[in-house]
Amino acid sequence: MERTIDDLTEVGEVHRTPHAFYSDSLKIPTPKAKLAAVQAVMEAFSFDRFDAETLVSAAADVSQIRDAVRRVRYARRGAVSVSYIELDVVTWRIVPSPENIRFEDSRVRTLSLQSRFSSLPDAKPVLTFETASGADLGSRLDNEADLIYEVNEHAATIADRGIETPGLLSVARIISDDKNTVGVLDSTDGFGRTVGAHRALGITASEALWKFTNDVDSLALRRDLVKLKVNPHNREDRIGEHLSEDNRRKLRASVMIRAQIIVGFSSVGTSSTVEPRFDQIRRTLVGHIHIEPPKPFALGTQYAIKATAAVQALDANGSLPEVDGFVPEEISAVFTGTSNVVHPIQQVLKDGRDALLADEVFVLSLEALRGRGGSVHKRSRIINGAIRELTGQTPSPSDRTMIAADLALRLGELAVGTVKEDKTYESRRSAVERAIRGKIFNDISLIRNSVPDLLDAALAEVEEDLSNVSPHPHCAVLAGLGLYHMVGMPNRRLLERATKKDSADQGYISEPNVVMDSLASKKRGLKQLAQIIFDGRAGRLPQELPLDQEPTDAVFQDGNLATAASIRQTAGMAPVDIVPVTPSRRLLISVGDLKSQIQQLSDRIEAIEAIRDETSESQVSLISERGAALAEEVSEMQRITFKLHRWNEILSELAETAAREAAQADLDALDLLDR
Q: Within 13 Å of residue 360, how many CA atoms lie on the same side as its CB?
């Protein structure tokens, strides 16, 4: 008795999926059927003919289109709703996305800024991608496909098992200066599957983009595959007994069955007052799918995606920082890294305006995502809403500061033209993130005065408010500009996290936020920041400001370069007049030490949460899987928390009593005047 495919699979004689599961729908369309399908797509979804032809040319069997346009399906991901049709499509008409979100971290930090998707007007679900060199784009896609194939274990299984899970695809136009405009299906979700299919077919990403978008070459490949799938000796053969394994793999990989092709979109309850474009919807959609998956993206990629979403939302709502003399469109370009008003050195633009400098771009980024002055509440709502639409979760304060640090560091580096490959980037980003937790950055807002003018105003702020309560905008700007020149450049590390032992005092060094708050609240600290800015803008290594000198835009003879240790020393310098250690002062010092120790405890907890089993697929925190025996410690922490809460209440009660007494004193004084 002849055995079936299922019989062969069950006993282990066939270890691979029969090609017919995929290739059955692969057919050669007649011109009349293709024309009718194009017309049906145009009428159903208001596609232009070019884009309708792109979709139809990708259909494995055009007869499916008639039914597909009648059965539009809908899906919602966070704040994004899309409508799509399900259709078997040929994989050589799918292109690995030129805006693959997995390369977002390198994309946003590259010096030769790469194009991004835009989209057609009138709310059409069609992407557009413009490039100066089609050859360069093809080469980049080939390189990215190679990288994904190396790390994506699933991609290699396509040759033997086919595409078992269909991808989400978008109609796209690729426009280049040196080649004709072509229509493709973008692998919006399914880059690895597409790469695996192309490998099995024996084609490259660049060939899918530039060769097989040609109808002649596409039809020739289709004819070859249709011919392969038919066994002339056994018409019922669905395994391909007459074929080599390479040809069976081609047939398995030739079709993505039930691919989901987006044909409409909308946003649901977004924070923006402007309806997003399709390319923005696509980014939100892909981010929502991938940012919190079982195998998450690298942290740098997640920060970059979230920052991009936040900036786009601020821009759409007209809430990006304002800079005198620059229109909103120019500031928007600053945040996308495409501005022509930013220069690495001080320069006057053709229209007479002073170009924005790298350290000013750094401060602008902090103002947008970190600052809490002025329109903070509106900005915070917009930023939180944009990230929530992307991930489904409101970002934590530490997440917000890390996103701000990443954006500021990236844009600052792009502005000055530093290379993207930098092994110190992550440690410097960590230092920036911790630094901008400092209270001084609550007031950060770019002020484009000269360094001497900024310093004079900052010194006046310190003199006027010794209680360090009122906003100090000029102190904050000096801190932001100085922070850039301390850690904003590759291998520039004048601030360090408190994970390294200080050999001088055998203790943990102060965290960057403590250092920055201290520098920005003392005259000598502000002067040191001014000197660092002078040096950084002049292209010099930052100098330690001599005790008997004022900040100057010059090299100090017999001076010393600033170091992380000298910066900490300046931040912690004792006042000239020695203050007696009274009980009250001892209490203040002890409370300050307690706050520092609590911060160290918080850092230790974060470090424990960061421990992961690198060999595990889940890559989740080990502590979240295994827990820890901490019953006694929990009890002790509850006791400590209660005591801290009580101490804080005492201070609040004293403040309320003082306020009442002051108010009563005012009333008594008025009574005396009335007598």
A: 23
**61/536 Cα distance (integer angstroms):** 63
pLDDT tens track for 378-428? 888 889 888 877 776 778 888 889 999 999 999 988 887 765 567 788 888
Give the separation between CA 19 and CA 245, rounded to whole angstroms: 10
Q: How far lies 485's CA from each of 19, 144, 344, 563, in Å? A: 60, 34, 13, 12
- Residues in Cβ contact with 177 at an 8 Å cutoff, skipping those fewer than 6 apart: 131, 132, 133, 134
Half-sphere exposure of 662 (CA within 13 A, CB side): 6
Q: State the Cα–Cα distance between residues 317 and 271, nearest whole angstrom.
A: 9
- On whether the CB atoms of residues 509 and 560 are closer than 8 A, the answer is no
CA dihedral 643, 649, 651, 654 (to 10 degrees): -140
Residue 284 has pLDDT above 90, yes or no: no
DSSP 186: E
Which of residues 152 and 96 earns the better pLDDT score? 96
pTM: 0.55
Enter the tokens of residue 85: 């049709």
CB atoms within 10 A of CB 251: 25
| pLDDT average, residue stretch 309-324 | 91
Residue 10 CB burial class (10 angstroms; 0-12, 13-18, ≥19): exposed
Does position 452 have pLDDT exceeding 90, yes or no? Answer: yes
Q: List residues bridging with 131 in a β-sheet.
A: 176
For residue 242, give the 3-state DSSP assignment: coil
Q: What DSSP string describes 505-560?
A: TTEEPPPHHHHHHHHTTSHHHHHHHHHHHHHHHTTPPPBPPPTT----SSPPTT--
Say how many C-beta atoms besides its own lie within 10 A of residue 112's C-beta: 6
10 Å CB burial of residue 604 (0-12, 13-18, 19+) is exposed
pLDDT in tens, 581-599: 567 767 877 787 788 678 7
Q: CA 378, CA 393: separation in Å to the nearest integer?
A: 18
Tokens at 525, concatenated:
């600290």
